[in-house]
Amino acid sequence: MKTAWLSLSTPPAPRGTVYGTALNFRDALAALGEATHAAPYDSPPRAPILYIKPRNTWIGAGMPIPLPAGHDAVVAGPALGIVVGRPARQVSPAAALDHVLGYTLVNDLALPHASYYRPALQQQCRDGFCAIGPEIVPRAAIADTDALSIRVWVDGVSRLATSTAGMVRPVHQLIAAVSEFMTLHRGDLLLAGLPANLPLVRAGERVTIEIDGLGRLENTVVPVTAGVHSA
After folding, report:
1. pLDDT tens digit string along 50-77?
2. Rg (the chain; Cα; Å)
């Protein structure tokens, strides 16, 4: 099902907000090791850690990913995108999926960075750093969002193979936990999180993301000097 919400040839236009979720994969959380017990929090996160991918980051399938001047590579972030179909406020895990319109592929890009303890706006919110598409797949077409294979290739070479089975909070639990403290509105896009060992993609390389049942999202990294603008 293709909708006006996404376009193959122009930047996609979610009707709401795009929310990223940090540390929602067990391997990504484990990779931090003892750092999760360091100040200022002194313990692993007890609630979802959210951040926003603003409008300037949105690009569609096939559009170039800008590589900012002075940087060698971007980090590819394969994410399951959960498209909200009707408002979700303090919903139970059992009812959470009733608020989902469908799912889409997202490449949640960033410049390499190590800290989760301060806003990484300069690394995560650059122009073109959130590729979305190419379409929304209806919720009913995905039988089990918690057992989907995730694959990433760079120039046709496999660089990551994992699964949504590794999520700390499965989709229904994530929606319930987020809606406990904020309302998700129709047209919002909630990203289910990123696994560990994300690949780097350099200028001129093509990154391809697949998640079972959602098709394929491909974009090529292009340096800013080639005429692509970056924040």
Report:
1. 999 999 999 999 999 999 999 999 999 9
2. 17
All residues at 6 or more sequence positions from 5 whose CB lies less than 8 Å from its CB, including other chains: 12, 13, 14, 15, 83, 136, 187
Output the pTM of the full model: 0.88
Query: In angstroms, rounded to a whole number, what is the distance separating the alpha carbons of residues 108 and 105?
Result: 10
The answer to whether the peptide bond before residue 40 is cis (omega within 30 degrees of 0) is yes
Contact of 84 with 184, CB cutoff 8 Å: yes
Residue ranges of domains in the chain, CATH in brackets: 18-62+75-142+166-198 (3.90.850.10)
Contact assessment for residue 70 and residue 64, using Cβ atoms and an 8 Å cutoff: no
Please choose, from the candidates 218, 207, 45, 230, the residue with its C-alpha nearest in 3D space to the C-alpha of residue 128.
Answer: 230
CB 148 within 8 A of CB 80: yes
CA distances from 178 to 91, 122, 171, 220 (A): 9, 25, 11, 33
The tens digit of pLDDT for each residue in 127-184 reads 999 999 999 999 999 999 999 999 999 999 999 999 999 999 999 999 999 999 999 9
Alpha carbon dihedral 172, 114, 117, 34, in 10-degree steps, equals: 80
Residue 138 is encoded by which pair of tokens?
């209806």
